[in-house]
């Protein structure tokens, strides 16, 4: 994986949690939002391309 996850969560909200991580290749400290399953499902539906039906 390109990120190292710290054992510390920075916060939590209705959409998920935010973890403090480090990019292994650049050593940059970043915040990563970890979405709850139901939020991920909604985003997949929202951003998925429309289905194409072939008869």
TrEMBL record:
It comes from the Eukaryota. Gene3D superfamilies: Phosphorylase Kinase, domain 1. InterPro entries: Kinase-like_dom_sf, Prot_kinase_dom. Residues 4-55 form the Protein kinase domain. GO terms for molecular function: ATP binding; protein kinase activity. This is Protein kinase domain-containing protein. It comes from Gouania willdenowi.
